[in-house]
Every structure is written in C-alpha cells, then in structure tokens.
Specification:
Strand content of chain A: 25-35%
Strand order of the largest sheet of chain A: 6-7-8-3-9-10
Bound molecules: adenosine-5'-triphosphate, magnesium ion
CATH architecture of chain A: 3-Layer(aba) Sandwich
Number of helices of chain B: 26
Number of helices of chain A: 6
Helix content of chain B: 40-55%
Oligomer: heterodimer
Helix content of chain A: 25-40%
Order of helices and strands of chain A: EEEHEEHEHHHEHEEE
Largest interface: A-B, 38 and 30 residues
Number of domains of chain A: 1
Low-confidence stretches of chain A: none
Structural class of chain A: alpha/beta
Number of strands of chain B: 24
Low-confidence stretches of chain B: none
Mean pLDDT of chain B: 89
Structural class of chain B: alpha+beta
Chain lengths: 239, 813
C-alpha cells in the first residue's frame, strides 16, 4: 500500500478520556489506538456521543487525555507545556468548527490575518481568500456573510498558517446540502494540492466515500479503521 | 413555582459574585443615604434641641453701654421671653510659657438655668457664688490648654496678674463652633479662649457695675421681629443710643450732625448672623448636598449593575425561557421569576445597607462630636430616613430588574429557543474618523472593537469608574480647596510671622521700639476694628484693617491676582463684601462704628480684594486713625521674626511689653488649621472606600459579563494559537481604555460635584474657591485604575480556566 511508507501525522496510543460528572464518570474514549498518515484525508464517523469530537480535540491539543499518549510529527503532544501547546496549535494545526467560530468584531480578512500574524511564514491572505471565492467579501463582518461564506473564511483561517494538520468538526453540520458538498470539495482539493492531512468528523456516513480512510467509532472505541482504495471526488458524491 | 424558586436560588448561587457586586452597590447607596442623611438630621436636630433647651438667644444687642434698667425694659416688652445684660470683653490671660492668650470674658448670672444662653457643665461645678473669684472655661480651650477644675488662671491687667480659680469646664450653645468673629473664624485655642465669669465678679473686675455692653434677647415664639426690633430701638433711644441697626436694615445717619450731637449707636445681631451658628449652617448645607447627591449616584449605578447582570443572565437562558413558555408557564410567572433576582438583590442590599447606614451614622456622629461642641445631642437612629433609603434601594432595584424581566416575559418560545443571532460586527465610528486605528495591531484592534460592540455596557463601565472617581475627587477637592485657601492665607496674604495684639488701643509707635529688638526683622503697626459699611440701604458689619500704605506684610490681591495697596483715596472691599453690598468700584459707601458714638464717613470704593476669609475692608492705617479721630493709634503689630517664631528670649521680651495681650504666631495658627482639616480625614476615608468599592463592583460586574459572553470567542482565539498572555493583555487594554474613558468623564463630573459641594463655603464668612490639585487627580486616577486592574482578576482567572474543548463546540454562548 502506498500509504505504508509515508510519515505518520498523528498517532494515538491507548488513549482514554474520562469526564467526571459529579459522582459519575463518563468514559468518552476507552483505549483508542490510531495512526494517521501525512497527506491523508481521514473521515471519522460514529453516532452522537461516540467520542468523535473528543478525539479531534485531543489531537489538536485543546484537551488532554486521561490516559495514553499522543504523538505528532516528532513530538509528543501529551508532554507539552501550556506554552508549547499554544505554539503547536498556532503552527501545526488548523481548526474548522461546525459553528465557524469567527471573531464577530473582525472582518473576513481580519479574521484570517489575525491567524496569519501568529506565524513567521503565513500564506498571503488576499489570494487565499480569493482562491476560496471570497475576493469580494474581504471587508465584510461575519454577521454579513452567509453560512457557507463564513465556513470558507474559517477554512482560510485554518489554512493561512500553512499547518500540516487540519482538524474539522462537522464542517458542514449546519450548512445546506449543496454548500456542504462544496465545502468538502474544497477541503479535499486543498488536501491533494497542498499535501495536508485532514481529519474530518462527521455524522454523515456517505462522506466516507471521498476519504482515503474511514474510522468508525462507537462508545469511545474504534470499531472500524479502513483504507478506502478508491476514494470518490466530492463532486461525484450524493447523499 | 417550587421548581422556579429552586432555579432562582441555583442561578443566584452560580452568579453569586455578580449579583453580590450589584447587591454591594445597592447597599453602598442605601448606607450612604441612611448614614449621611440621618447624620445631617441628627446634627440639625441636636443644634435645634441645644438651642431650645439652653435658651439660645434670638438677638445680641451690641452696645457700648446700657444700664440694668434698659435690660429690664426690653425684657418687659411683649413678645420678649427674656433679656439678659452681660459684659463681654477681651482680656489677656497669662499662661506661663505661652506667648499670651486672649480670653473672651463673658459674664454669667448666678441663677440656673440662665434665662438666655445656658451653659452645659461637662466637668467640675458651677460658680460657688456671684462674687466668687472663679471661672468656667469653654471645653475646647480647656482641653487644648490642659486646664482642669482646681487649676488657677491669671488675667493680665497692666502689670498685675489676677488669679482666678477654674471650677468647671462648659459647652455653650453660642460657641458650638468656637469663633472669635466673622473675620476670625478659626482662632487657635493656643491664642484664644472663651472664659465665663460670675456676673458680679465681672462687673467689679471691669468696673462697670450695673452696666452692660451686650444684651441677649430671647423672643416668644411667633413674636413679630420687625416690631420688636423697633421697640427695642425705642427703649435704647431713651438711654441715648440713637439707633439700633440690624444687618440690611440700617438707616444711614448724617455723619457730621450725628457726631456733633454725640449720638451713640448699637447693633442687633440676629441668630442667623451669629458666627458660630452661621458656620454650622454652612457646614450643614454642604452635608445636606452630599447626603443627597452621592447616594443618588450610587443608586443609579446600582440600577445599571442589576440591569447588566440580569439581562446577561436572561440572554443566556433564552432557550430555557422558551421551554418554560412552551411548558405553559405564564408570562406573569416568568416576569416574577426574573424580577425575583432584582428583589433578592434589592432586599439584601437594603438589609446590608440599612445596617451599614446605622453604623455610618454613628461613625459620622462621633467624628462630628470630635470637632464641634455639641452641647446636647439628639442623635437617634432615624427610622423614617432609613425607611426612605430602603424604599429607594428596593424601588430602584425592582425598576432596574423590571426592564430585562419584562423583555424575558415577552419572549415567544420559537424565538427564544433559536440561538441568538451572532454578535453584530461593525466598524466603530472612531475608525472612520481616525483611519490609523484600523491599522493597529490586533492586540489593540480587538479591544477597541469590543468597546464599541456593546456601547451601552461600555458606557456603563466607564460611568461606574467615573462616578467612583468623581466621588473621590469631590471629597478630596474639599481638602485641596481648604489647603489652597490656607496656603494663600499664610504664604500669599500674611507675609508676617506673628501678630501681636495690644490689650487695648495703643500707640503705633510701639512698633518702632519692637522693630529694634534683635531677632525682629520688621514690625508694622496694624489697626483693626469692627465697623459697619453701608450702601443704599444695605449694611454689613465687617472688620476694617488699617495697614501701612507701603510695604504692608499683609498683602492684598485683586480677583485677577494682581497686588493692590491700600489707598488714602478710598476703601478696598473684599469681593464677598462687595457682592453683599451690591457696590462696584467708584461707588460711595458709608462707614459707621458698630457700637458707640456715631461718626459716619463717606468714602469711595477704590478696589476689590480677593481672599479666603470673607468680609473685610482695607484702608491705610492713617485713614482708619482719622475715621476714629484718634491719631497715632494701633491695635497691634505685624512682626517678621528670624526663624519665623523667634527665640524664647525674644518671645518673652515681646510678651513682657506692657501693651501686649497676646502674640499669635502664624506657624501655630497654620498648624491649628491643618490639624482641624486633618480631623476630616475620617470623612475622606469613608468616601474613598465608598468610591473605590463602587468602581470595583461595577468594573467587576461588566468585565465578568463581557468575559462570560465572549467565552467562545476567547476559546477560539486560544485554539488558533493566541497565547494566554496576549489574551490577558487584550482584555486589560480593553478595560484600561474604558477606565481612561471613565477618568475623562469622572474629572468634569467630580469637578461639578465639588463646585456644588463647595457652594456652601462661598458666603460672607469665607469664600473658598474650588480647587482640584493635579496631584490629587493623578493619585485618584491611578488609584481607580488600580482598583480596575484588581477587579478584572476574577475575569482573567475565568479566561485562564476556560475549557477550550467545551467552549468551541458550545453553541449557546
Ligand atoms: N465536557 C464534558 N463533560 C462531560 N462529558 C462530556 C464532555 N464532553 C463530552 N462528554 C461526553 O463524552 C462523550 C463523547 O462526547 P463527544 O463530544 O466526543 O461526542 P461526539 O461523538 O462528538 O458526539 P456528537 O456527534 O453528538 O458531536 C459523550 O458521552 C459526551 O456526553
Ligand atoms: Mg461532536
């Protein structure tokens, strides 16, 4: 398999996550082992509450696991200090959220610039936004943009720092069908052209068809981890 | 309903600090009103009660001399409750080691209670008999000089030292505020004291048996003052006192003819013009201002605090409200539920505030008792005032809560359960005005945008800072104003080090002799005497100062600040006096002695003088001597001494002069005033604490609300890689900018409050200009910024503890 000699982008070893809920303990992840390769477009599927978001947050260094270790590209993120985690998020990871999470007081361009300013070699903001079809929307505030436009701004924000790893949690979750599909096409294209690793969480099993790899979670465990030998182009997708 | 009440308690517990801060502001307002307004009432009532119980006089008839018969005739007039003749004279006291004390000796009848102006004995006993060689000392004087019953004091009469035994220490309603005269409101007890002598002993001492120079008159309630004044004048006329003048109603006599006929005049001073009473009224008035103005600002701030916290809570609970409506809760129930928060805040605030108000009232009462002689106190917990304060506190809380609660009750479920629209982004107008703002780094740009994103709340935060600062500034300005006035008085006006007062009118030539003493750099004679200045039906009793024409160490300045010298061409009036008489430069005024032989003289006004001590008039020494028809006389000397106080030998030598009654050193006088002012630190301490607490509570609240509301944004910033330090910095910049805006608002606000507050001190007794020193402003502003920085700590900790993973997916924040 072609993927086998590629570098590993993220590796989870025996990762568990327990949320204390008063006297109870919620076992969000119960021993997850995973290795995601560089340049892969990975889709994580699973029912609600199965731990998808939890995995993503752990990979992105937003949260720390209760047990196990997480490695990326040379470093063990479970061993990083708060400051190192900030740098890791700044330089190595791009986040795309279901609710876009743009800064409402900044324009489209400013939202992206804010992230660009954090790294020494960002991509050029203007061309990136233009490439994402937002050339006319630079000076608009999030409240003046449609959902799809907002999500594209969020994608630009995630990409502008040129991170090797992009983590997306239900990026099309509150978008309509067409818009959602376009967002996926966009991400898939970027993954291919720029060689970035995408880990995308979704409810929608149909999306597994465009992935290089599909990971299925249930009750905090990986129940399926399959390479898709013939990923479809997003445009060809139907659901 | 049970569930709702549980929910109320739970929400209160979750947001306890924010509701606590709002409660604190309500409590501060209620406490300030309760404490200050009750104290105002307590003081007012105590003065009134003392006056009533101690038979305070309604009129003081000042004459050069009136016989016993005149007094009893006045006493017999219908409408007069009592008339009492007495002798009031100033006599030097010999106190070993002191540079002389001028005692105001007042004769007191033996009968107790006295029919006019009774004394309260605080220590020792009353005179053993009308002839006894005994004295009673006024409390402030006794305390300062350390005299106790059993001690002996000596009057200085020429070269004689006449001993009197101190038998008691008293408080007089006439000297609740110990003043020497309207022109000398703050005599130091080191150099001035009030001493009471038994009636007959005083008559013997002054050799004026059966003759008095003051008649105290007490009126029956409802007596017609105008009629009685005329009748009293009538009585005195039969004793050759041609006219009895009262302020504002003096008749102007024909000077030359009056003088030839040897007419004598007298003056009736009404209680409202009596210096101690006037000083108390002035103080009460400023206190009254403060006790209304400050609490109103606190309650306004409290209303904003409640509104802010409650609207934020309701915003966060929109889905829950929608659910409640869907489940069938009525609008009334929802309204009641959210109004419940305001009710709890109001009730708690009122409870704490009322308790605090009682304590504050006690504290203020104690503080006042320390610097005024309240003869009989009528201090009580004033239920009516506390009730008004409680009502206002509760009312304001409920009103402030009603606005968001009403909006919550009006929400329809479909609307409520929809997530609220994303915060509106917009370019603040200042960026259009100043395009460079848009090019600032994000560390500045985001805070700036945040400020304009909720302008009402930002304004409120700034207003909270402003009110806190204004409170501090306006109370501090009281000190600045008085300090500056004291400074002007001692560094600008009085360029001499000591004032030597003669025991009686004496030769100005003493000055030459004294000037030659080693250690005396210069000596200048001074002639000061009470006089009446009249102009077109208006009349004002004042002090005329006769000063050397050249090189007077008592400097005079025009309101524009230019030096001006006394001129033989005419009289100089202080601005206060000028305004009271309604005259201007070039007008002619008439001058007439207060009591004694009429010798009215007309004279043009040649200039206006500005000084902190109210009404005075200035002439060259020689002109005053001419006015009195007594060439070459003086009442004292103005001395410049080496080292300001001279050495002990010189002091003794000056004191031993046969002419000397007392020497008043300016350093001492100044120290006394500074000490007097220092007593007010308790007051500023309270205001400082209240102002800081107010600013802290409001800043804490809005910053907490802002932070909670922006949790998700802050988490997003963190996820894209902004460091915690940078986010702290951005939050701090936002708060500091709001703080600076608050300071910019607070300065003028504080100034306006200070102007209001100091209005009471711009009368004929004194004219204290509003002063706010840059140092005070800088200290207060720095202090309030420090308070602001401390108040944001809880919000910063909230940011620090933010659960990034939870926030970025939470869609209801
Ligand atoms: N902060 C938290 N505190 C307590 N429990 C949590 C927390 N976050 C997640 N959980 C629990 O952990 C489990 C996994 O949650 P996670 O958010 O990863 O699910 P998910 O697969 O993303 O679900 P969905 O598709 O609904 O987003 C769930 O049972 C959830 O209730
Ligand atoms: Mg999820």
């Amino acid at each position: 398999m072609a993927a086998s000699h590629r570098e590993i982008a993220v590796r989870l070893v025996g990762v568990t996550k327990v949320y204390p809920m008063g006297a109870l303990q919620v076992q969000a992840l119960q021993g997850v082992d995973l290795a995601i390769l560089q340049g892969e477009f990975v889709v994580i599927l699973g029912p609600s509450g199965s731990g998808k978001t939890t995995i993503l947050n752990l990979m992105g260094g937003l949260d720390s696991p209760s047990g196990g270790r997480i490695f990326t590209d040379g470093a063990e993120i479970t061993a990083l200090t708060v400051g190192q985690l900030t740098r890791y998020r700044r330089e190595k990871v791009g986040f795309i959220f279901q609710f876009f999470n743009l800064i409402p007081t900044l324009t489209a361009q400013e939202n992206v610039e804010l992230a660009a300013e954090l790294v020494s070699r960002p991509l050029a903001v203007g061309p990136l936004l233009a490439e994402l079809g937002l050339g006319e929307r630079l000076r608009h505030f999030p409240s003046e943009l449609s959902g799809g436009e907002q999500q594209r701004v969020a994608i630009a924000r995630a990409l502008v720092t040129d991170p090797p790893l992009v983590l997306c949690d239900e990026p099309s979750g509150i978008l309509d069908y067409e818009t959602g599909k376009r967002i996926f096409a966009l991400m898939k294209g970027i993954c291919r052209q720029r060689g970035k690793t995408f880990v995308v969480v979704t409810h929608n099993a149909a999306l597994g068809q465009i992935a290089h790899r599909v990971i299925q979670l249930r009750d905090g465990r990986v129940v399926r981890d399959e390479v898709n030998p013939h990923p479809l182009e997003a445009e060809a997708l139907r659901w | 309903m049970g569930k709702l009440r549980l929910q109320l308690l739970r929400d209160l517990a979750v947001h306890k600090w924010q509701f606590g801060a709002a409660t604190l502001v309500v409590a501060l307002g209620v406490a300030l009103f309760g404490g200050a307004y009750s104290s105002y009432q307590n003081l007012k009532a105590s003065y009134a009660y003392s006056y009533q119980r101690l038979a305070m006089a309604d009129y003081w008839l000042l004459v050069d001399e009136a016989p016993e018969r005149a007094v009893s005739e006045i006493g017999a007039l219908p409408g007069v409750a009592a008339a009492e003749g007495r002798i009031v004279r100033e006599v030097p006291l010999h106190i070993p080691g002191s540079a002389g004390v001028l005692a105001r000796v007042i004769s007191v009848p033996q009968e107790r209670p006295a029919s006019a102006i009774d004394l309260v004995l605080v220590e020792g006993s009353f005179f053993s008999g009308p002839q006894a060689r005994e004295v009673l000392l006024e409390r402030k004087f006794a305390n300062f000089q350390g005299f106790r019953p059993g001690d002996t004091i000596h009057f200085k009469k020429g070269n004689e030292r006449i001993p009197f035994k101190v038998v008691g220490v008293v408080i007089s309603p006439e000297y609740i505020w110990v003043t020497k005269s309207a022109a000398e409101m703050f005599p130091s007890p080191r150099a001035f004291g009030v001493v009471f002598l038994p009636q007959e002993r005083a008559e013997a001492f002054f050799g004026s048996q059966g003759r008095y120079n003051e008649i105290l008159v007490r009126l029956e309630p409802g007596a017609d003052r105008e009629v009685l004044l005329a009748q009293m004048g009538q009585v005195l006329r039969s004793y050759h006192i041609a006219r009895l003048s009262q302020r504002d109603t003096a008749e102007v006599g024909e000077s030359r003819r009056d003088a030839i006929r040897g007419y004598r005049v007298g003056e009736a001073v009404a209680l409202k013009d009596q210096p101690s009473n006037k000083m108390l009224e002035m103080d009460l008035e400023s206190f009254h201002q403060l006790s209304l103005m400050f609490p109103v600002m606190f309650l306004a701030a409290a209303a904003m605090a409640i509104y802010t916290v409650l609207s934020r809570l309701i915003q966060g609970q929109r889905p829950q409200i929608g659910l409640m409506v869907a489940m069938g809760y009525s609008r009334g129930q929802i309204l009641g539920h959210y109004l419940g928060f305001a009710l709890v805040v109001g009730l708690l605030g009122v409870a704490v505030g009322t308790g605090g108000g009682i304590l504050l009232g006690i504290y203020i009462g104690d503080m006042y008792s320390g610097f005024v002689n309240i003869p009989l106190r009528d201090f009580q917990v004033r239920g009516d005032i506390l009730a008004v304060g409680a009502g206002a506190g509760l009312g304001v809380s409920l009103l402030a809560g009603l606005v968001p609660a009403w909006a919550a009750a009006g929400l329809r479920p479909a609307v409520a359960m929809r997530p609220s629209a994303p915060a509106l982004g917009r370019r603040p107008p200042v960026e259009a005005l100043f395009p460079f703002l848009a090019r600032l780094s994000y560390t500045w740009k985001i805070p700036l945008r945040n400020i304009f994103r909720n302008p009402r709340r930002s304004f409120y935060t700034a207003a909270g800072v402003a009110v806190g600062l204004a409170l501090i500034l306006s109370s501090a300005s009281f000190f600045d104003a008085f300090h500056s006035a004291i400074d002007l008085e001692f560094n600008g006006i009085r360029q001499y080090d000591a004032q030597l007062s003669f025991a009686q009118l004496d030769s100005a030539l003493v000055s030459r002799k004294v000037a030659s003493y080693p250690g005396v750099s210069s000596s200048q004679p001074l002639l000061q005497l009470p006089y009446r200045v009249l102009s077109e039906g208006k009349s004002k009793t004042t002090l005329i100062l006769g000063l050397p024409e050249m090189g007077s160490p008592y400097r005079l300045f025009t309101p524009e600040g230019k030096a001006i010298a006394p001129s033989p061409e005419g009289i100089l009036l202080t601005r206060v006096l000028q305004e009271e008489l309604g005259v201007k430069v070039g007008d002619t005024v008439s001058l007439q002695p207060v009591a004694g032989v009429v010798g009215a003289t007309r004279m043009p006004v040649v200039g206006i003088v500005e000084q902190p001590v109210g009404g005075m008039a200035f002439l060259p020494l020689r002109s005053v001597q001419d006015l009195m028809r007594q060439p070459g006389v003086a009442t004292g000397l103005m001395l410049e001494l080496e080292g300001h106080e001279g050495d002990a030998g010189l002091r003794q030598r000056l004191y031993d002069l046969p002419q000397t009654a007392a020497i008043n050193f300016m350093t001492e006088q100044r120290r006394f005033l500074d000490d007097l002012l220092a007593l007010m630190w308790g007051f500023i301490g309270v205001m400082l604490a209240f102002g800081a607490a107010l600013a802290a509570a409001i800043v804490f609240n809005t910053i907490m609300v802002n932070t909670t509301e922006r949790r998700r944004e802050i988490a997003t910033l963190r996820t894209i890689g902004l460091s915690q330090g940078r986010i702290f910095l951005m939050a701090t910049i936002e708060n500091l900018l709001l703080g600076l805006a608050g300071i910019a608002l607070g300065l003028p606000l504080g100034y306006v409050m200070a102007v209001n507050f100091m209005k009471a001190y711009q009368g004929d007794l004194m004219s204290i200009s509003v002063v706010l020193l840059p140092r005070t402003f800088i200290l207060a502003a720095a202090g309030i910024l420090l308070v602001l920085l401390l108040s944001q700590i809880p919000a910063l900790r909230l940011i620090q503890r933010l659960d990034l993973a939870a926030e970025v997916k939470d869609w209801n924040s």
